[in-house]
Amino acid sequence: MILIFGSILYLSLKKSLERGLDISLRTFEEELRDALHINPYEKWNDVVNKESGEEIPLMYVQIMKISENGNRSTISIRSKTLKSGYLPLSKMAYAKAMRDTISFDTLRDRDNNPLRIMTSPIERKGGFSFILQIATPLKVISSTLDKFLFILLISGPILLIFSAFGGYLFVKKAFSPVKKIVRTAKRITAENLSQRIEPIDGKDEIGELAETFNDMISRLEMSFKQTKQFSSDVSHELKTPLTAIRGEIEVTLRKEREIEGYKNILKSLLEETGKLETIVENLLFLSRMDSQGIKFSFRKFALDESLLEVFEKIEKIAEGKGVHLILKKIQEVNVEGESNQVERAITNLIGNAIKYTPEGGRIEMSLEEERDSAKFTIKDTGMGIPEDALPYIFDRFYRVDKARSRETGGSGLGLAIVKWIVEAHRGKIEVKSKVGEGTIFVVFLPLKH
Amino acid sequence: MRILIIEDDKKVAGFLKKGLGEEHYAVDVAYDGEDGAYWAQANDYDLIILDIMLPKKDGMEVCKEIRHKNIATPIIMLTVQDTLEDKIKGLDEGADDYLTKPFSFEEVLARVRALLRRTQKYKTRTLKAVDLELDPVTRKITRAGKKITLTGKEYALLEYLMRNKGKVLTEAMIIEHVWDINFDSLTNVVNVYVHHLRQKIDKGFEEKLIHTVRGVGYIMKEEDEDI
Question: In the beta sheet, which residues pair with residue B213?
Fold first, then answer.
């Protein structure tokens, strides 16, 4: 860049110096021509020496006489300034002069010094044509140019160093936030997502970038935490029954037992296997939904019939526990979706209510139209859910009371599945609860007419 | 030797209690962290088996609390994930050992024995007093090479006496370490068992090993030992 700039500067300076030189050549030529014009040929030599002797810069003058037929030229007058030398005449300048035009040339003399030469014709006098050549050594401008070039060559690298350093400082300052972002990004791994980029002053693009970055890390951290929690929950849920199964078998085998002892252990093992089965089944269901989404075949079906079907299946369990299962107002409503899945959700909800309602309690259900939705309500007189636990009850493996729900055989996934199914049917689920009084779940599913 | 199990899963706690009980350990069970921390401080246990995931108060916290109260009882932690992080955290909080679920019951027994051995003077496998030998692994007892058969409680009492050889043990201490929490301590059961034990261990031998310290309790010591 500096090189190009320097070259342009150098060339334009050279050009303007040359032009200046040409102008002084021309001015001198006009003076000389006038002087020659008023003097006869015999006096020309004196005129030339007089004019050229006073001139600054140094001027060389040479007048050539052209023969009559125009193909030979001889030097007739030379200024004293030329000493023993003479001025070269290029063919081009000669040709131009013969056609009555002025030309400028840069040529070298015998000593190889560059000269700026102006060549112009002079009108015939006494049957002769003359060519007037005025020259000035280019040394003047070449020394100026050399000085300039020298300055340029010295100042160029200095300028280069300064501008590079300045640029470096500027870029460094401008990009230091970016560097910070990069450094933070490098430190971030799956195990270490607590890192944040320090907030950057100013509302510029980089500040915004840092903020966006921090938001992204937060979201990643959250999702990693959830995944970690989930896998730790899964292993806990699976490994606890496995531990019980293995331990019970090992302890039993250490000694000879009564038949009754073996029977009890086998019963207990069956229970644990049942628990494992439920958990594995639910986990598979959820992971299938997560990975590809279950492809529901959306078909219109009667929700009231599904509800009654579940009711008939589950009534016995409620009876066995001494809980009253009561159907209140049941309207005929049609919804769209997969009846199997909706029935699974309803089963989970009723099953949950039975689990957490003590003997003698009541579970009331109703189904009705409300605006564009089918509204299914299930209300129990169970133990209720504490307010601080309500936001989490649809989370996988979340348990309000760990010990109790483990005993009742919950997998910790039932409500998560319910929520998923309801939302996959473009519905929503709401919950209200009061500890000691009971819980109400309300499910809305879009109506299909 | 008395063991406290703090584990919320009834079945896991159940087989541990049953299995350890059949190995003549006195076993108590707490089903949540709060109860566990309470019992660990209320009774003098020889060993605690502590689950990490517990309702009310998690295992790490229980461990911290117990150690904070200067209770040095060895603790075996039960974990589900065998991540290094968990192990380090557990050991740093004051646990002595850990077991990853699902574990083998034989391993539980081996670890229990290893931890109990740490509290005794000589780290040998067998416990010795003159010519009386007790092997906690095979539960074989010999005196002068002659095999002696004991009932479960007699064995537990002898093991406790031998592990504390040279120390005077009060009746209360014996009850605490040999019987579990459901035992009614008003009876003179210690007296009775010590009598049974003497019949089997000391009778017919020149050197008596079990001595009565009048008004205080009992001691197992060798003749040349001074206390």
Answer: B217
Q: Report residue A293's pLDDT band, with 50, 70 and 90 as the boundaries.
A: low
User: Does the pLDDT value for residue B105 go beyond 90?
Assistant: yes
Amino acid occupying residue B17: K
In this predicted structure, what is the pLDDT of residue A448?
83
Distance from CA of B163 to the nearest CA of A (A): 25
Does the domain spanning A2-144 belong to CATH 2.40.170.20? no
Interface check for B132 against chain A (CB to CB < 8 A): the answer is: no
- Residue A220, pLDDT > 60, answer yes
Question: pLDDT band at residue A248, thresholds of 50, 70 and 90?
Answer: very high
Q: B18: which chain A residues are within 8 Å (Cβ-Cβ)?
A: 251
A300-309, pLDDT tens digit by residue?
Answer: 889 999 899 8
At A429 the pLDDT is 93
Mark yes or no for CB contact B81/A272 under 8 Å.
no
Q: Does A2-144 match A299-446 in CATH topology?
A: no
Q: Which residue has the tokens 């006195």?
A: B26
- The answer to whether the complex's ipTM is over 0.90 is no
DSSP state string for A249-304:
HHHHHTS---HHHHHHHHHHHHHHHHHHHHHHHHHHHHHHHHHT------EEEEHH
DSSP A196: -
When mean pLDDT is compared over A190-199, A271-280, B32-41, B123-132, the highest value belongs to B32-41
The pTM of the full predicted model, rounded to 2 decimals, is 0.58
Domain covering A205-290 assigned CATH 1.10.287.130 in the classification = yes
Of B50, B49, B71, B37, the C-alpha closest to B2 is: B49
Mean pLDDT of chain B: 85
Q: Beta-strand (E) ranges in A44-176?
A: 60-66, 73-78, 103-108, 114-125, 128-137
Q: Give the integer Cα–Cα distance in Å for B211 and B217.
A: 9
DSSP A390: G
Both tokens of B117, joined, read 């051995």
Is residue A407's pLDDT more than 60? no
Residue of B nearest to A229 (CA): B81
> In chain A, what are the domain boundaries?
2-144, 205-290, 299-446
CA distances to A58, A202, A290 from A341, rounded to whole Å, are 110, 53, 15
Over residues A375-391, the mean pLDDT reads 88
- Report how far residue A358's alpha carbon sits from residue B44's, in angstroms, rounded to the nearest whole number: 38
CB distance B8–A245 less than 8 Å?
no
Q: Which CATH number fits domain A299-446: 3.30.565.10, 3.30.1380.10, 3.90.1300.10, 3.40.630.30?
A: 3.30.565.10
Q: Please give the pLDDT value at position B30.
A: 92
Q: Check if the beta carbon of residue A367 is closer than 8 Å to that of residue A331.
A: yes
Report the alpha-carbon distance of residue A345 to residue A347 in Å, rounded. 5
Q: How close does chain A come to B83, measured CA to CA in Å?
A: 10
